[in-house]
Amino acid sequence: MPERADATHTGSAAGGGTPGERPVGAGLSDRDRALLALERRAWPGPGAKERAVRERLGITPTRYYQLLNALLDDPRALAHDPVTVNRLRRVRDARRGRR
Q1: pTM for this structure?
Q2: High-pLDDT (> 70) share of the chain, %
Q3: Can you tell me the distance from the alpha carbon of 36 to that of 64, in angstroms, rounded to the nearest whole number?
Q4: Where are the alpha helices (DSSP H) in 1-99?
Q5: How far apart are CA 30 and CA 46, in angstroms?
């Protein structure tokens, strides 16, 4: 059986590896990058974003927000899109403070 060279292992988004092996943001899955891209946009009116979530990602808006919330705590997301992630963290923290 051939030996695996760990230095060349590219793995999945959840895969291992040491810091510095991948470019910044490379550890995010396509879905994670799509979530952040949707949040980066401005939406024209009510319902447009939810429609886009269903059409582009094929998931419900509820699942979208669950995934997005978890993604905000991922350091790879912060490295990939710090402006969007920090904005969403501020919004989340403000909502938690009002509860």
Answers
A1: 0.69
A2: 74
A3: 11
A4: 30-40, 48-52, 61-71, 75-80, 82-98
A5: 26
